[in-house]
Amino acid sequence: xxxxxxxxxxxxxxxxxxxxxxxxxxxxxxxxxxxxxxxxxxxxxxxxxxxxxxxxxxxxxxxxxxxxxxxxxxxxxxxxxxxxxxxxxxxxxxxxxxxxxxxxxxxxxxxxxxxxxxxxxxxxxxxxxxxxxxxxxxxxxxxxxxxxxxxxxxxxxxxxxxxxxxxxxxxxxxxxxxxxxxxxxxxxxxxxxxxxxxxxxxxxxxxxxxxxxxxxxxxxxxxxxxxxxxxxxxxxxxxxxxxxxxxxxxxxxxxxxxxxxxxxxxxxxxxxxxxxxxxxxxxxxxxxxxxxxxxxxxxxxxxxxxxxxxxxxxxxxxxxxxxxxxxxxxxxx
Length: 333
Hints:
Layout: H1 2-16, E1 18-30, E2 35-37, E3 48-53, E4 59-65, E5 68-69, E6 82-83, E7 96-98, E8 107-115, E9 118-129, E10 136-140, E11 143-151, E12 156-161, E13 168-176, E14 182-190, E15 202-208, E16 213-219, H2 220-259, H3 288-310, H4 318-324
Parallel strand pairs: 1-9
Antiparallel strand pairs: 2-7, 3-4, 3-8, 4-5, 6-7, 8-9, 10-11, 11-14, 12-15, 13-14, 15-16
């Protein structure tokens, strides 16, 4: 009786340990960004969540139970880059957050959620993309060069022109990045030497991957317009510089002239022959020739006044008399 009851209990327990397996879910992640791998579980506070990377040999990615992360046996490649939503695990959210996604993270993952009601497994295929962000196109002599860098997976480059023509192209693809996981692509075209006019042609270069594509366009007409605009700007700049030179010289000469001028307030007055203070009202500053003329006139008037004083009647200065009297004739011996 006791044995049959134990067997019955075991049968009941085994009846509830069912496993539900979902089909693969494809997830696209961007290089060095954060990506979420979806997974769900049955509700319950006793959930145990296991994450594995199957494609890399069942690498242990993340483990969660007893309400906490258990990362003692986590693979070194995932250290510091994985996390769950701990406050949502009891509600059935077992999704994994993976940060700084790398090319090595690509592959197939398994999420295993264990509760008292059973085991639920989900499979996720992660694809990593480094999309085409920029395409550069330029003209170098008789070649048109197109390039783009930091792309994954290996990109494809195609050329097109506005008119049908035959040209040769050379494309080089190189791996780059810390571990050589990204791709750089560069291509050039050389047009044949013909008499056909290619001056108005437009060249298009497109770099494509599975996630996106970018196109760059180069037109000879745009190149000519750019050169013409640059020439016009250069001419305008030269004209402005040449126009500023006379103005600067004029201001320089004006400052030099003012530094050689004497204010009217300190010039001798012509009417009285004495120095008088002038009013503080603004007056025109005379030039050097006018100053010299006024000084000569003042000196002439002062000399005339002194001579008149010397020859005036009643002047008793002996030294002055000696200057005016003729010298005495010599006495005969």
